[in-house]
Amino acid sequence: LGRSDTVEFPIKFTPKNPGCYHCQIILKSSCDIRVYEIECIVNADQADAQLEFLTPAYQAVTQEIPIRNASSEDWRFEAHLEGQYFHGPPEINVPVGETVQYPLTFKPVAE
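Predicted structure:
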């Protein structure tokens, strides 16, 4: 009695770059083996950006947004655009080590 069923197992993770990191922890005893899989996704410091579009009504303007994959795995994004008059591909693939431009288009129908 008075014993806890849990044991603290502190882990320190200090990534140097953005990306997807995998870790496997194997705990063994004479009568048991436990495997824990850990995945950490690290974003760049400046993940937020702001774009300003200026164009006459009925004329489209496209901004190429660079997406750089510095991780060790290919990325596949699904794009969900919010706001009227914005258009872009519904998905984009960014291979390891490459930069792919996402074309975001704004085409207003009124001033």
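Summary: The chain is about 0% helix and 40% strand.
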